[in-house]
Structures are given as structure tokens and as C-alpha cells.
Amino acid sequence: METNASDLVKDIGGLITLPDVYLRISRLLDNPNSGGADIAKAVSQDPSFTLRLLKVANSALYRFPSAVTTVGKAVSVIGTAQIRNLSLSMSVAKSFAGLPNDLVSMENFWKHSLYCALIARHLAKLARRCEPDALFTAGLLHDIGELVIFNRRPAEAQAALQTVLDSDDETPVFEAEQQALGFDHSDVGGELARQWNLPPLLEECIAHHHDIAGARQHPREVALVHIANILATLAEVDSLDPDDTETIDPLAWELTGLTPECIEPAVREAQAEIEEVEKLFTDKT
Amino acid sequence: MSTSPPAIPAAATQPPPPVLPGFEHVRRAWNATHSYYAARILPGEYYVTKSAEGVATTLGSCISACIRDKVSGIGGMNHFMLPATAGSDPDAYKATGLGAATRYGNFAMEHLINEIMKNGGRRENLEVKVFGGGRIMEKMTDVGKRNIAFVRDYLAAEGLAVVAEDVGDIYPRQVIYFPDTGRAKVKRLRSLHNNTIASEELKYVGSIVDKPVSGDIELF
Hints:
heterodimer, A: 285 residues, mainly alpha, B: five-stranded mixed sheet, 25% helix, 25% strand
């Protein structure tokens, strides 16, 4: 039996596959000689991604003043680095369909993740000096380790959830996982991100959203995902009462310069956007 | 790696209050954050107390009635659901009359009320709050709705007014009720917990279907 997060991730490589379009865009971005036109060409090779990219570019998520009708325009208005994030975000639900579980429905899992993504994106705009689209992807991916644990170690995962309920919901899930397994979903997600060579920003947000002080390169982004994750749980249960969720680490406010006044508008905006975004980023119709 | 240490529950600063006979098996835990003892009941259980302590449970589509004598503070909570009946009509349980379906609901309600009165509660002082009946499994029939309809009918027939309720919707709930003050705290839970809660409830429904209750319910 796997005794740590890295062993757990080792044998799931074949079950989750990143899309070719993401890998192609990543290679191009790492090559200093390639430009926007190369990225647009790589995108065009995947007609289904192209179609969905144009839908996203014309959605309320971007509010561009005029219609985005070509891949070239989408790449120039969204930006090459952000197209890579989008190609990851738009395929992640499909990529993880190979890791089913009996503990949470995929629909509910991605709904929480999308709430976190929307709120992280919103907070990134407020905090400034952060890429909103990168934060969207980080928010969407922050709990992916959970799907690995639920699929590979269902008994311990269920015991952890039961511990949370038995504590009157006062023990956070990641702490209950540490008690049951010796590691938690942020450790597993971090390992997965390393195995996939995801950009360091995403890796740190996934690995440290419950442990901001552990972030080395991107503490502000990690702090934004930490706040967004907790606000996402409020959005899910339609509440603005801090007693209904986990405590936000004061370090997160310090690092981002944000204040609790941002909570209500962030939650309300995400609730207004969730339905459209569910259609764009998952199979939900 | 996450470095934050797991929370160590703070020790209780006082011993648990006395337990009424018949409820010794119910687990009571100290809540360190808010400094109180709470008895934790599972589906099919109930708990009555004369002391300053809480009664807590987690509800999916099940119902908890919280009832107390508002003068003496004696009161408690039950946790039940009606077993499945044919059809998705929320009123279908009525068709079976006093048969299997309603029997479990009546059983749960009467046990709680009888126990409160046995311990000195007076019927004219009873105050009722009702929680639960959420639709936590989107793809299944809305059994929560049926449970809500049952408890409302039951209380109306008994002439007991409901002073507060939080029922229906799509959320599981964590409920803590303090019979001595009548205060109830309801927290909606994340959908992450839906399946864990639903499987507990299914286990309970399975157990009541397999094992019919006695036909003799003591009326008060």
C-alpha cells in the first residue's frame, strides 16, 4: 500500500491524460522562437477545442467589446500564456473522467472547483499584479488530489469525511485526511502537478492552498486560492456567514492586501456566473 | 507538504451533565470551540435531556423534530425518515394509512414526545422546531419532500405549532439544538458530504424495512 502522496500518484499516470492541444501550446511557449501565429495554428489543429475557445472568448467571462470570431483574434485578446491555461481548464473535467469515485459526484466536485476558479479570478483582479486567467486555472485545479485519493484510497477517504461530520464539521477535510492517510489532497495534487510539469504557479497553488506559509515562489497567488477555496464553500451553501466555513488564514489577507469586505461581492458574482461557466467547462448542458 | 499540525481537541473543562435513563448509549462529545456537551444522534435514534447540553445530528433527507417544554426546558430531538413507498407523489405515504410508511414517523415522533412528558414536560408548553428533508441526491426521488409533508401533517393533527423550521432545498444540514434555551443552530454542509450522509440514511432505511416496528404504539 502506498505510504505517501508520491507513491499514490505514480500508478495513476495512465488514467489521466492531458490533451494534446495543451501539450503543443506548452512546447511552443517554452520555445522563444514561436509567436502568437504558431499558437493559433496549434489551437486550430483541434477543432473541438477551437469551437469551445471561441465560446469562452465570447462569454460573460471576458466581456470583450466586439465578437471574437477567429482563433487569431482569440489568441491576441486572451494572450498566449492564458490560452495555455484555458486549454488545461477546458479539458480538466474530461481528463479526470478516468478517475471515478463513489464519494462525490463529478458534477458536485467540479461545481466547487469552478466556484473557486471564478472567485480566484475575481480576487486576482482586485489584488492586481496577478494574472486572472492563471488564477482561474489554479482555482479549478486546486482540489484535483481529492479525485486521486477518492479513487485510489476510498476507505480512508470515507473515514476522513466521516471524521469531519463527527466533529460537527469543525475538523477541516485536509486535517482528517492527514489523520487517515498521513498526507492530504494538497500533497497528492502537488505531486500530480510535478509529474505533469505544470507551471510552478499552478503547482504551488494546488500544493499549498491549505498551507500558505509553505509557498515559496507565488505566495500571493497561493493566498488568493486559499481565500477563494473557502469563499467557494460559502457560495455552494449560499451563505455569507463566516461561521459556515473554515477560517481564512490572516496571512492570506496580509499577502494579498485584500480585506473581508471583498467576500460578499466575490461570492455573489460567482453565484451569478456559475451556470454559464458550468456549461463552458464541464459537460453539463 | 502541508505543515500545519492536526488540531488537538481541547480537554473538556467539566464533566458531562447527568444522562436520563435509556439514553446512556448515546455518544456525547465536548465541543471545545463553544464549550458545551452535545449528544450526537444517528438516523433512527432520539435523545431527551433535562440538562444544559446540546443534541446534535447530521441530516440529509431525514427529518429532526426538536421539541421541548419551554417552561421547564426539558426536551430533545429525534432523527427519522419514512421508508420508501411506491410512486414519487409526496402524498403517496398517506395511501398506506396507518400502515408501514407512516408508522415509522409516528413511532419517532411519539417516542420523543412521550419521553419529554415522562420526564415532567407538559403538553401545553411544548415548543417545536423542524429541520431537514433536503434533496441531497439529485437523481433520486425527492424523499425529503415526503418526510417534510409527513411531519407537518403529524404536528398539525396533534395541534402542535412549529415555531421555526429550515427544511427542503438541496443541502445536508448539521443541527445542534439546546432544549434548555430552545436555541437551534443549523449549518448547511457542502455537497462533498452528500454521499456519506445519504449512505448512512440508506443503511437506516434498509434496517427499518427489514425489521418492522411493533404495532402497539403507546399513546399519550
